[in-house]
Request: fold
Amino acid sequence: MRMNKRGVLIVFSGPSGSGKGTVLGEYFKSHPEAAFSVSATTRAPRPGEVDGVNYHFVTRERFEEMIRQGEVLEYTRYNGNYYGSPAGPIRKELEAGRDVVLEIEVDGAMQVREKFPEAVLIFVLPPSFGELERRLIGRGTETREQIEGRLSTARRELSLAPRYDYLLLNDKVEEAAARLGEIIRAAKCAPARNETLLQEFLAE
Amino acid sequence: MRMNKRGVLIVFSGPSGSGKGTVLGEYFKSHPEAAFSVSATTRAPRPGEVDGVNYHFVTRERFEEMIRQGEVLEYTRYNGNYYGSPAGPIRKELEAGRDVVLEIEVDGAMQVREKFPEAVLIFVLPPSFGELERRLIGRGTETREQIEGRLSTARRELSLAPRYDYLLLNDKVEEAAARLGEIIRAAKCAPARNETLLQEFLAE
Reply:
């Protein structure tokens, strides 16, 4: 009898510039057994993007069928294209005992919370709002207006952070990745994720 | 700006024979900065027990005054005596940024949950119910009837385990103590315990 044979679904969000991708990359280095959920999209592949790696590239008809059939755990429309997380592969990995990480926006995260209450929602915070701004400016790839847009989005995202299970302050990447591991292991100890264990105990 | 300057109140429960005391002892070895809440009681000190170390020994009048004044975070009556957790010292330690561990029964834990919603409730599980029974018999200090009583109490306690935040399976003491540390660090990342941080972020 052991705890949580099933994998845990981890929803990972955070403002652009919070460094969530870097933290995840660091986490996967020491947790190659965890799975990363590849999103489906109707947008055209960009040069170098590989189907099934960067995204599952599907037609609009196929995506809308997936929505109707409940085959996406969450989805959104952005710039006229659909983006979403295919439910099938996720459920398969979880059943096989692998943790699955979804890196998605706050609205998608709230959809997952609804459909999959046992998911662990983690919100990544940059060290400060000022630091977020410096990081976005430091990239040097965007106009002042685009940066203002990102900061305004970040404020909205931060206002939804209280609905997440955990906040992960990303001041040092290695520490944040280690903390992420602790959060995931701790989350697996929640009673709601161990109902079978408790039932087995009481049935003895 | 850092997370949770305040200490966290940790409620630690588990059936007799779950090894919760041993796990805590192991945890405190590597976390001497954490505080252990000493209970108050109206029962007489036993030989060797030291006031302020094993218990705060107080009169019935004093204990009932503490109840009236809201000076106990939780209390219970057992064999005609009061047992409870003095609120003052706990709040002081938390304010000073120290974590405080309360090792109390399930009913007390539910009282703490009511009065102190930000507390982290951890329930210790033995490896199995059969193992719990073997441990209780192995002590060799109790009659079969007393052991049956403890097992029946354990069943009732286990039925309340789903109300805790975390289950801690105690199969190996060192691993359980390490997991306890992870749970406490993770719990500190809950948004409800970081409201100030989020407010500061949004106020920037």
